[in-house]
Design goal:
- By secondary structure, the protein is α+β, with helices and mostly antiparallel strands.
- The chain contains 1 helix and 14 strands.
- It has an 8-stranded antiparallel beta sheet with strand order 9-5-6-7-11-3-2-13, with no helix packed on it. A 3-stranded antiparallel beta sheet has the order 1-14-12, with no helix packed on it.
- Strand 6 and strand 7 (157-166) form a beta hairpin.
């Protein structure tokens, strides 16, 4: 007869689905039991790993108060790390031409809070998406995600300073705490870059560089240049 046996086929399908569900449930129960036993047996190891990660995280996000110098016409390091580039370059976005550059590499063991290098007003602020090349590359600013902050100096008035916050291979998040038109004080905290990264400082050719290649600098504290 027409459609004969289709009901039985439907029953077989439902029975098969039920069997598959039971097998899946048993498999999940088996895995849960063994994973649970593993966790119970090695919970101390897992807790130890969590504790190590937590301690490193608090160490990484440490943020001591800098001893900011009070002298006139000083430019202080915006980041903690090692000076590995001092050169002349062209920066057209804010400085508007040829200028001096000081680049500071921040390893994963350095403090990653950045500070305002001078007192003034944020006149330029631009976030540029990009890649996440190793920040040890001195040319990574050309390719990596970065935030550029341009400051009109209050002292000496009329000078401009650019600060580029650069993400790295591990540091994939830049957290600025300022925006355009904000007033900043020398040494004030302005941003956080999470994990290894780089900070470039752009100065007019009039500035006198006070650091050398290989110097370790302290953000918000070390004098890197001055306008004498």
């Amino acid at each position: 007869m027409k459609h004969s046996g289709k009901a039985a086929i439907a029953a077989v399908k439902l029975a098969g689905i039920a069997a598959a569900a039971i097998i899946a449930l048993l498999a999940v129960s088996y895995l849960a039991a063994h994973i649970g036993a593993f966790i119970l047996e090695f919970y101390s190891v897992l807790f130890g790993l969590w504790l190590i990660f937590t301690l490193f995280t608090f160490y990484f996000f440490r943020d001591p108060d800098p001893m900011t110098p009070t002298g006139a016409n000083l430019v202080i390091a915006p980041g903690h790390g090692k000076v590995d580039v001092i050169d002349t370059t062209v920066e057209s976005n804010f400085i508007g031409g040829e200028c001096q550059r000081i680049s500071i590499f921040l390893s994963v063991f350095d403090i990653h809070v950045q500070n305002a290098p001078v007192t003034g007003r944020v006149a330029y602020f631009k976030h540029t998406p990009g890649e996440y090349l190793n920040a040890m590359r001195t040319d990574c600013a050309r390719f990596n995600e970065n935030v550029y902050v341009g400051i009109d100096c209050a002292e000496p008035r009329g000078e401009k300073i650019g600060v580029r916050l650069i993400a790295g291979l591990i540091a994939r998040r830049i957290v600025p705490w300022i925006q355009e038109n904000d007033a900043v004080q020398r040494g004030e905290r302005i941003s956080l870059i999470q994990f290894g990264s780089r900070v470039d400082v752009y100065l007019s050719k009039r500035a006198k560089i006070k650091v050398q290649l290989g110097d370790k600098v302290i953000g918000g504290q070390t004098v890197i240049a001055s306008f004498d």
